[in-house]
Amino acid sequence: MEFVWPIRVYYEDTDAGGVVFYANYLRFMERARTEWLRSLGFEQDALMREPGILFAVRRIELEYEQPARFNEELRVVSELGAVAGASLDFVQRVERAHDGSVLCRGTIKVACLRAADMRPTRIPAAIRKKLG
């Protein structure tokens, strides 16, 4: 399953050279993962209340290929990699919307934690089912 989230580069996303600041690609990817969960019917604040879980990034590996610039239309393409008992691996890439050229790609491992004590816990069955 692939999820695509469109974004536009704002002035605040760029550095003094007029290109997207490297750390902002992480923000773009985080937003795409959040919107993917939302599209499946899961709001993160509601998940914290019931069933009492949250997702936290455990590991990130990124590769930067080309710069994005102010006002460009981009898209974040997200796919689910491995699913373990208490973690999800996402494979994500940021592309230019008009030609699909890849600007940044990454693999992000997200851990499922109990909100009460921040300890790992199994991903709830309802979420696993919707993720496929």
Q: What about the largest sheet? A: 5 strands, antiparallel
Order of neighbouring strands in the sheet with most strands: 1-3-4-5-2
| Radius of gyration based on Cα positions | 16 Å
Mean pLDDT, to the nearest integer, reads: 96
Describe the structure.
The structure is a single chain. The chain is of the alpha+beta class and 132 residues long. It has a single domain (2-131), classed as Hotdog Thioesterase (Thiol Ester Dehydrase, Chain A), CATH 3.10.129.10. The protein is built from three helices and five strands. A five-stranded antiparallel beta sheet has the order 1-3-4-5-2. A hairpin with a 5-residue loop joins β4 and β5. The radius of gyration is 16 Å and the shape is elongated. The mean pLDDT is 96.
Entry summary:
The protein has 132 residues and is α+β, with helices and mostly antiparallel strands. The chain is built from three helices and five strands.
Task: For this entry, give a set of tags.
alpha+beta, single chain, 5-stranded antiparallel β-sheet, 132 residues, Thiol Ester Dehydrase, Chain A, 3 helices
Q: Helices, strands, pairings?
A:
Elements (H helix, E strand, L loop, with lengths): L1 E7 L15 H16 L4 H6 L3 E12 L8 E11 L3 E10 L5 E13 L10 H7 L1
Antiparallel strand pairs: 1-3, 2-5, 3-4, 4-5
